[in-house]
Amino acid sequence: PILYSYFRSSCSWRVRIALALKGISYDLVPVNLIKDGGQQFSAEFKALNPMQQVPALKIDGIILSQSLAIINYLEETHPNPRLLPQDPKKRAQVRMIADHIVSGIQPLQNLSVLKQMGEKKMEWAQNCITSGFQALEQILQHTAGRYCVGDEVSMADLCLAPQVANAERFKVDMGPYPTITRINKALLELEAFKISHPSRQPDTPAELQA
């Protein structure tokens, strides 16, 4: 497999965690979203992913984009360890939390949106994340065990840790979100989350490396 990734992209990080958890080795091709006006806009990369976003994964003779579509494919082709609970109610909760982050928070504060916000970038990102986290904190108080849903790492957790990293980057006060903070701390102790972390990627700038 070949993963087209950017060290700081939270969507790419989700997929890197899934690959690490499932023990799938891959080659990484960095796509710098800032350099050269954004390498994702090159004709070469557009041929791989017409949406001109990372991640993209070449695997089993196909090219997949969109992090949850990729993670779902990995889940179906490499079922262990599972990232979706067997219980239908818990599985629905995992998908709900994942969607909450991937549809309701992350796209509103990603690079393409922030470019449009000019000087209000930081304030906009903080507002988007804060309103999303207020709801997420409430949801997690009902679903969480050690992790987002019970005591098994799930697709929801793969979305949570990168989003908390975004929140920290945009200097969001995490004080009001003790459940999110506790789960994130537990996740960052896991090897798959450590090796896939933005601070430990081949394309991480020297000053940001762990």
Any overview of this molecule?
Pfam families: GST_C_3 (PF14497), GST_N_2 (PF13409). InterPro entries: Glutathione-S-Trfase_C-like (IPR010987), Glutathione-S-Trfase_C_sf (IPR036282), Glutathione_S-Trfase (IPR040079), Glutathione_S-Trfase_N (IPR004045), GST_C (IPR004046), GST_Zeta (IPR005955), GST_Zeta_C (IPR034330), GST_Zeta_N (IPR034333). GO terms for molecular function: glutathione transferase activity; maleylacetoacetate isomerase activity. The protein has helices at residues 10-21, 43-48, 67-77, 88-104, 111-117, 121-143, 155-169, 178-187, 191-195, and strands spanning 2-5, 27-30, 56-59, 62-65. Strand 3 (56-59) and strand 4 form a beta hairpin. The chain contains nine helices and four strands. It has two domains: 2-81, Glutaredoxin (3-Layer(aba) Sandwich), CATH 3.40.30.10; 88-193, Glutathione S-transferase Yfyf (Class Pi), Chain A, domain 2 (Up-down Bundle). Helix content is 50%, strand content 8%. The chain has a four-stranded mixed beta sheet with strand order 2-1-3-4, covered by helices on one side. The radius of gyration is 16 Å and the shape is globular. The model has no long low-confidence stretch (mean pLDDT 97). The chain is an alpha+beta fold and 210 residues long. Helix 1 runs parallel beside helix 3 (67-77) and helix 4 (88-104) runs parallel beside helix 7 (155-169).
